[in-house]
Design goal:
With 386 residues, the protein is α+β, with helices and mostly antiparallel strands. It folds into 2 domains: 108 residues, Rieske Iron-sulfur Protein (3-layer Sandwich); 206 residues, Alpha-Beta Complex (Naphthalene 1,2-dioxygenase Alpha Subunit, Chain A, domain 1), CATH 3.90.380. The chain contains 9 helices and 17 strands. The strands form 3 sheets. It has a 7-stranded antiparallel beta sheet with strand order 1-10-9-4-3-2-5, with no helix packed on it. It has a 7-stranded antiparallel beta sheet with strand order 11-17-16-15-14-13-12. The longest helix is centred in the C-terminal third of the chain and has 30 residues. The relative contact order is 0.16. Bound molecules: FE2/S2 (inorganic) cluster and fe (ii) ion. Fe (ii) ion (FE2) binds next to loops.
Length: 386
């Protein structure tokens, strides 16, 4: 029996505490609670994980026309994705170069970004075009005050952004992911819907939950389990991402018995019985099923808050069907149900993690990726890799 001892005053960044986290998964313990609660640990995660590497921010086809834009968050850093009048998509910080107000939020279309505070005005390519009553500012050259631009790259219609000038090229960071997902013809997908949630939990609760099917029978007993039961899932730690795949017939996109779309063109006999989740570290899961894709990003807004973005895309041909909206609703309804089931679990877990009596646990063989993810986070935070 484990008796309650007073909470240790240990430094959360002392490596000695993580020996059990870094063991092989069948011997490992899960992360100590302070990794889900401590502002110091969180600050180290932001710098060592989120301010490095490439982050999937959305689809280029979400902003097809000049002046289209949408905003994104990478660990509280806002990113503004905009297609310029020249047709090129760029990624900016939306913080105004005057006194920092956000010049744009949400999504829309505009000819210029006009800061609501003092009306400094930027082109959709990020240049400062007008700054009222600035004639007195000595040596002020608007050319030096465009929106700060981030590195952006694209793969298969997905836009990626990095805050790290030294990040390796995107193609190197993705490794063989294009081979894993090639058969789903991602280039031909069209973004159709985003739903967001603001959760009272640490971002790792959400990722942990997303990379195991151990919880499917209990948490999704009436929704996902009848379609994709726990037993059909397989887990692989790959060099550039984690792979979670399920082998079963039918789509994973709707509840059992609901109307669905035909499979993606070109999928072979065996391929229509395989469903792939690619976990892009640190916080995005792309799921490709036989007729559509969705991807979910869980970005932190502090140690105890997580902003979740759930996105759908379908093959262009599917979106052009007369009955697209009607049948697509079956997919959205299924997600609205399953996501809420996961959200409630993650928030309850966060409450449990704040309990002084809580101790790290052990992993089942369905949690290989949870263990690998805990080790990845720990190694990044402690500065041992990457
Ligand atoms: S903060 Fe944007 S114009 Fe002043
Ligand atoms: Fe779930």
């Amino acid at each position: 029996m484990d008796t309650l001892t007073p909470p240790a005053n240990a430094d959360p960044l002392d490596p000695g505490q993580y020996r059990d986290v870094l063991r092989p998964v069948d011997e490992a313990s899960s992360l100590p609670s302070h990794c889900y609660l401590s502002p110091d640990w969180y600050a180290a995660e932001v710098e060592s994980i989120f301010m490095r590497g490439w982050h999937l921010v959305g689809r280029a086809d979400r902003i097809p026309d000049p002046g289209d834009y949408f905003s994104f968050e990478i660990a509280e850093e806002r990113v503004l994705l905009a297609r310029g009048a020249d047709g090129i998509v760029r990624a900016f910080s939306p913080a105004c170069r005057h006194r920092g107000l956000l010049v744009a939020q949400g999504q829309g279309n505009c000819r210029r970004f006009v800061c609501p505070y003092h009306r400094w005005t930027y082109s959709t390519e990020g240049a400062l075009l007008a700054a009222p009553s600035m004639d007195q500012a000595k040596g002020f050259d608007p050319a030096g005050y465009g929106l700060v631009e981030f590195r952006l790259d694209e793969w298969a219609g997905f836009l990626f952004v990095t805050m790290d000038p030294a990040a390796e090229p995107l193609a190197d960071a993705l490794g063989d992911l294009p081979d894993l997902l090639g058969r789903y013809r991602l280039d031909e997908m069209v973004f159709t819907r985003q739903k967001t949630y603001d959760l009272a939990c640490n971002w790792k609760c959400y990722v942990d939950n997303s990379v195991e099917a151990y919880h499917v029978p209990s948490v999704h007993g009436k929704s996902l389990q009848p379609v994709a039961p726990m037993q059909v899932w397989h887990y692989e730690v790959r060099e550039h991402y984690y792979s979670l795949y399920g082998l079963f017939p039918g789509t994973m996109g709707v509840l059992k018995g609901e109307r669905c779309f035909p499979p993606i063109e070109g999928l072979g006999e065996k391929e229509v019985e395989r469903h792939d989740l690619a976990i892009l570290l640190p916080n995005t899961v792309i799921t490709a099923t036989v007729d559509s894709i969705w991807w979910v990003t869980a970005t932190p807004r502090g140690p105890g808050r997580t902003f979740v973005m759930v996105n759908h895309a379908f093959p262009r041909k599917t979106t052009e069907r007369a009955d697209f909206a009607e049948i697509a609703q079956n997919y959205y309804d299924r997600f609205d149900m399953v996501n809420v089931e996961d959200n409630e679990i993650c928030e309850l877990q966060q409450v449990g993690l704040t309990q002084r009596a809580r101790r790290p646990g052990r992993y089942s063989d369905h949690e290989e990726l949870v263990g690998a993810f805990a080790a990845y986070v720990t190694e990044r935070v402690l500065g041992r890799s990457g």
